[in-house]
From TrEMBL:
Molecular function terms, GO-annotated: 2 iron, 2 sulfur cluster binding; metal ion binding; oxidoreductase activity, acting on the aldehyde or oxo group of donors
InterPro entries linked: 2Fe-2S-bd (IPR002888), 2Fe-2S-bd_dom_sf (IPR036884), 2Fe-2S_ferredoxin-like_sf (IPR036010), 2Fe-2S_ferredoxin-type (IPR001041), 2Fe2S_fd_BS (IPR006058), Ald_DH_CS_CYS (IPR016160), Aldehyde_Oxdr_Iron-Sulfur (IPR052914), Beta-grasp_dom_sf (IPR012675)
Domain 2Fe-2S ferredoxin-type, first and last residues per copy: 1-79
Segment forming the signal sequence: none
Domain of life: Bacteria
Organism of origin: Aurantiacibacter spongiae
Protein name as catalogued: (2Fe-2S)-binding protein
């Protein structure tokens, strides 16, 4: 089968139990996506599938056959490169939003999806306990919706500042 990652096609004929995370790192050589817990608890492995964020350790590569559903995978490498950073990548650099950097690719992928979700006016952004009628992300919403991405260094304040800048 073929799996599309960052606009490129990769063939996959390995063990059907291979996680998308292992496929990306081992078969595609895209090591930006990190393995932390390998159990869906840390968010280090977050990638985008058709623009939606998922933990790549919790899904099988074989479930993303391009010819069987047309999934498009985007990793942190697909969001920008050193010569042309995405707005979020540049904001993370500007705000020093990392220490060891291990969680950063997952944080950036997750925040990329978060900002797109907010722009799309996803109804769930308007909730009773969050006064946010205009679908503008509040700091509390950013914290809540990034809570699946852990940072053991504790760079949360700067991560929030970076996302805040791009979210507007
Ligand atoms: Fe996937 Fe931790 S490695 S959530």
């Amino acid at each position: 089968m073929t799996i599309t990652v960052n606009g490129n096609s990769y063939s996959f004929d390995g063990d059907p139990r291979t996680s998308l995370l292992d496929f990306l790192r081992t078969d595609c050589g895209l090591t930006g996506t990190k393995k932390g817990c390998d159990h869906g608890q840390c968010g280090a492995c977050t990638v985008l599938v058709n623009g939606q964020r998922i933990n790549s350790c919790l899904t099988l590569a074989a479930m993303h056959d391009t010819d069987d559903g047309g999934d498009a995978i985007t990793t942190v490498e697909g969001l920008g490169d050193p010569a042309s950073l995405s707005d979020l990548q540049a904001a993370f650099v500007k705000h020093d939003a990392y220490q060891c950097g291990y969680c950063t690719p997952g944080q950036i992928c997750s925040a990329t999806a978060l900002i797109e979700e907010a722009k799309a006016g996803w109804p769930s952004f308007v909730s009773e306990d969050m006064e946010n009628p205009g679908n503008t992300l509040s700091d509390d919403e950013i914290r809540e919706r990034m809570s699946g991405n852990l940072c053991r260094c504790g760079a949360y304040a700067n991560i929030l500042a970076a996302i805040r800048e791009v979210a507007g």
